[in-house]
Write a structure and sequence with these properties.
This protein is of the alpha+beta class. The protein has three domains: about 170 residues, Uridine Diphospho-n-acetylenolpyruvylglucosamine Reductase, domain 3; about 70 residues, Alpha-Beta Plaits (2-Layer Sandwich), CATH 3.30.70; about 60 residues. The protein has an eight-stranded antiparallel sheet with strand order 13-10-12-11-15-16-14-17. A five-stranded antiparallel sheet has the order 3-4-8-6-7. A hairpin with a 5-residue loop joins strand 6 and strand 7.
Length: about 375
């Protein structure tokens, strides 16, 4: 296995070196389940598929740490953890059966539990990648106290493959809660935002919230006694088959995510206590911090309204010509560029995926 893995790594290195020498951009794409996310890649390019580099490298259930190759199917990693009653705390969406661990990290997308346990980057312990020169670089380790290079591993979360080809990933995992129960309340959008933020300041085992179509769903997770006590205190109606509900929300299989012709699905990030934005049909997660909005309004209108409340907006699906990501400030743009220049000086990895050179930056 080790010999085969080394051969695969060497072949990936040679591919990167050849592309760099010829100035041919490479699109890093495994299962392609999140290929829709981000901007189109600039110009002509070739696809680099890292799925041959797959498998669990090390898993210590007692240490709550797993290390795996980037091409490992995400479902395979989750199944291995489930055998020991553990899980990936950030609940990454798959968006298809071909999802890989590397794709989950590169996209940086997290599911319903993110507001209570943290984002993808918060679980990154260490990583290995191939940079734009074909060099293998390692960062971090397998424990939280090992901080050497730790921030670089965190930077890979959400980098969309622009910093290099991710090889190995070490992640902190968490135990599955002994009990989960979902309560539902018929409530307005405004009251849902107020109530969930009030609950956030109380000792309640709330692990996820979601509001859509006038109904607030609240997932309780933890010890049996704690969940039952919270259920008695909060009231509401118990949702049967709640696992399917949260899965559909995470995987965008909920009916809210059915495509609206001519509209863009916006992922809006704002301070949780922000009042309703009235931008269009809305689904709210993370106590109000993440809002999914269907709108036919032009991108400048959406982004100016979101900026006014201290947030940013991403054209998540069906962007209708808008740049996917909210324009960065000059300072952040410079930091982003310096980091990119350090790891990929030839800019051969996924050019334009994060910052669309051909887009009007005001959109």
């Amino acid at each position: 296995m080790a010999v085969a893995a080394n051969e695969i790594v060497r072949s990936l290195q040679e591919r990167v070196r050849s592309a760099a020498a010829a100035g041919i951009p490479l699109v890093i794409r495994a299962g392609g389940t999140k290929n829709f996310y981000g901007n189109p890649v600039d110009g002509e390019h070739e696809v680099l598929d890292p799925r041959r580099y797959c498998g669990l490298i090390d898993y210590e259930p007692t240490e709550l740490v797993v290390t795996a190759c980037s091409g490992t199917p995400l479902a395979e990693v989750e199944a291995a953890l489930a055998q020991h009653n553990q899980m990936l705390g950030f609940e990454p969406p798959h968006f298809g059966s071909g999802a890989t661990l590397g794709g989950a990290i590169a996209s940086g997308l997290a599911g319903p539990r993110r507001a209570t346990v943290g984002a993808v980057r918060d679980f990154m312990l260490g990583s290995t990648l191939i940079d734009g020169g074909g060099n293998v670089l390692s960062f971090g380790g397998k424990v939280m106290k090992n901080v050497a290079g730790y921030d670089i591993s965190r930077a890979l979360a959400g980098s969309l493959g622009t910093l290099g080809v991710i090889l190995d990933i070490s992640l902190k995992v968490i135990p599955r809660p002994p009990m989960e129960q979902t309560l539902q309340f018929e409530i307005s959008e405004r009251d849902a935002i107020l109530l969930t933020n009030q609950w956030a300041g109380q000792p309640l085992p709330v692990s996820a919230t979601g509001w859509v179509d006038g109904v607030l769903s609240v997932r309780l997770s933890g010890a049996v006694a704690g969940v039952r006590a919270a259920r008695s205190r909060l009231g509401g109606n118990v949702l049967e088959h709640s696992t399917a509900f949260w899965s559909d929300l995470r995987e965008h299989k909920h009916r809210f995510f059915d495509r609206v012709e001519g509209a863009t699905l916006w992922r809006v990030s704002v301070p949780p206590t922000t009042a309703p934005l009235a931008l269009g049909a809305t689904l709210i997660e993370w106590r109000g911090g993440q809002r999914w909005v269907w709108s036919k309004e032009p991108a400048p209108t959406i982004r100016s309204k979101v900026e006014a409340v201290g947030g940013h907006a991403t054209a998540f699906r069906h962007g209708n010509g808008a740049a996917a990501f909210h324009p960065l400030s000059p300072g952040l743009t410079e930091i982003h560029q310096r980091l990119r220049d350090e790891f990929d000086p030839g800019h051969i990895f996924n050019p334009g995926r994060m910052i669309w050179k051909h887009a009007d930056r005001t959109r």
